[in-house]
TrEMBL record:
The keyword DNA damage does not apply. It comes from Actinia tenebrosa. This is Uncharacterized protein LOC116290454 isoform X1. Residues 31-150 form the DOMON domain. The keyword Signal applies. Keywords: Signal. One of its GO terms (cellular component) is secretory granule membrane.
């Protein structure tokens, strides 16, 4: 009986993970980098899916500075797949165009990460406002790309 309950629970988790839909989408470069997201306003939480035409790691950064020049005060999500399918996601902070600093408060939750056909996909979520000074508060109604060509 325990096995059956465990199996049903695992199947339910798999179905929930597979049924995630993202109504918002931004292609930063065709066939190179796509960001999908949705906001759960009840939880005040953002859910992201990043698909990049690369293997190894993928990064997504948030800032409140218009234009985003100089990597000043960037809140960075960096994740991917290591050898032997070990997945990871880390929360970083940058103050300038130097190596980002690992945030002492890890406020990102990795849902999944995978590599397939030369692409890396990571799915994660975070609170809109984590309360962490090294995290950029995300506004539910606001999005602006740092890339002026978009």
């Amino acid at each position: 009986m325990k096995f059956l309950v465990t199996l049903v629970f695992i199947a339910a988790l798999y179905f929930c993970a597979e049924s995630t839909t993202y109504p918002n989408h931004l292609t930063l470069k065709e066939n190179v980098f796509d960001v999908h997201w949705y906001v759960n306003t009840t939880e005040d939480r953002f859910y992201f899916k990043v698909v990049a035409n690369t293997t190894g790691w993928v990064g997504l950064a948030f800032t409140t500075y218009e234009g985003g020049e100089g990597m000043k005060d960037y809140d960075i999500a960096l994740g991917g797949v290591r050898k032997e399918n070990e997945t990871y996601l880390k929360d970083y902070w940058s103050t300038s165009e130097v190596k980002p600093i690992l945030d002492s408060s890890q406020d990102l939750m990795l849902t999944s990460a995978m590599e397939s056909n030369g692409k890396t996909t990571i799915e994660f979520n975070r609170k809109a406002d984590t309360g962490d000074a090294a995290d950029t508060p995300l506004k539910i109604a606001g999005f602006q790309s740092a890339d002026k060509s978009l």
